[in-house]
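ok trying again, last paste got cut off:
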Amino acid sequence: MIRWKKGPFTALKLRVNRGPGPEFLAVDTEPDYVDTVKPAAGQTAVYKYQGIYLICDAEYGQWSDWIEITVTG
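nice, full thing came through this time. structure:
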């Protein structure tokens, strides 16, 4: 689960890196975000996530640092 605070913002735009490179993941309008993609049963992987706040459809501020989450299928 990716925990975030909404504050005055409209949404959080997320991207994920599951191996080959970063890709768009979602625009989440209500905290918190749950990524439902898991590795194969019995496998473990490290997923990296990055986010930026949105006000309406405009990005606000800078992309966050990458965070790493270990996920087990």
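cool. The chain is about 0% helix and 50% strand. Residues 17 and 67 are 10 Å apart (CA to CA).
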